[in-house]
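Deliverable D5.2: sample structural annotation.
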Amino acid sequence: MSDVTVLPPGMVDVSETLTGRFSNEVRVGSHRLLADEPSDVGGDDAGPMPHDFVLAALGACTSMTA
């Protein structure tokens, strides 16, 4: 997670970290997030599962627009 390039609004970049079986770096604007799977399915549990990000996004959208 060394790239400091700020992505333009609406752009998301996802790439493998090459540090684990499922670990991915998610870049959004100036933010860097890790997505992974739990250890019981072969991940390193280094970050939330992708489905958790989807649920978090829906929850945040609902909270901000309610």
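Annotation notes: The first helix runs from residue 50 to 65. Residues 12 and 18 are 19 Å apart (CA to CA).
The annotation will be released with the project's public dataset once the embargo ends.
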